[in-house]
Glutaryl-CoA dehydrogenase (Phycicoccus duodecadis), 403 residues
Amino acid sequence: MALMSSSTMPKRPSDPLDIIDVDSMLTDEERAIRATVRQVCDDLVEPHVVQWYEQGDLPVARELAKEFGKVGLLGMHLEGYGCAGMSAVDYGLACLELEASDSGIRSLVSVQGSLAMYAIHAFGSEEQKQEWLPRMAAGEAIGCFGLTEPDHGSDPGSMRTRARRDGDDWVLDGSKMWITNGSIADVAVVWANAGEENGGIRGFVVPTDTPGFEAHELKNKMSLRASVTAELSLAGVRLPAGAVLPDVTGLKGPLSCLSEARYGIVWGCLGAARTALDAARRYSMERTQFDRPIAGFQLTQAKLAHMSTELQLGRLLALHLGRRKDTVGLRPEQVSVGKYNNVTKAIEICRTARTILGGNGISGEYPVMRHANNLESVLTYEGTVEMHTLVIGQTLTGESAFR
């Protein structure tokens, strides 16, 4: 058998982080959408994100939302009402590019589109959709999603926030914790226990200027610092009958929304990993020790090879799930596999990249520690790694280990 000549040998990858050519599986349109989001991030986010992170705030969140709305990023995978109607893969690629800049930026878009907008789009009345979705798609109105409580995160069925009927009105009392966009939101999708006689867990579309609604921004975060995070307080919040989401009852509502957002995380976390890996790769070729670049040492190459392989496998998994979502849909356990694998591998990549940078790895001059810190939040929110482990375990065995 003749060996291939040098003229017929495949060329080295144009992107050293894509050795197996995952990009070849994307369409020209998908690559164009990715390029647009990358350019938006380069122009609007990259010059400022380190400062925002150090401040522990996202002071331009509303301005960013409007800019993202101009290019169709908000609710981009939803149809109608001013939404772009793009594919799940398009949305995933956008999430990856957003989180390559910072997890907080991707969270802004994810909470707006996959939680608040999706809830109204999937379960809202026509009046609710017409009132809110066009403005939210344009970034003119900001939404948040009130599910997690101070004492109930992984067990939302035990929430203490209550909704009671008072004539034709609803009255809400309770609190919600760790709510992205909470203190800048114009509308909150709040989940409350309305009692078995009213369908159990119900969702409510709550304008944030309603009397009794308050949001207090949370400070002193060590992770996801370039993001607005708040605690919501609802004290006798009176809403008209039309505020309830009419087309869903029970935990199906919030859990369906979480599946949408988790799908974006499957892609998004890989952006953080890609940035960290690229920083470590470049640093290793520039940093010299013992009169040679540290990229030439076997242990450094072993780290880079492992990180690169995990990143590429994560991209393949995300793309597979995205293609299925666009054709036949995803089951919850499939989303759990994606979040469980990709977030745990992404945080491992960031931590390993930090070791290549040595002491410089903890410096804000490099993006690695910022991404590693952010992923500590991503590892926990919208389903902890433990919960997704048990979802996968239940699928494998048929036995529930939640209780």
Summary: Residues 143-243 form a domain with the Butyryl-CoA Dehydrogenase, subunit A; domain 2 fold (CATH 2.40.110.10).
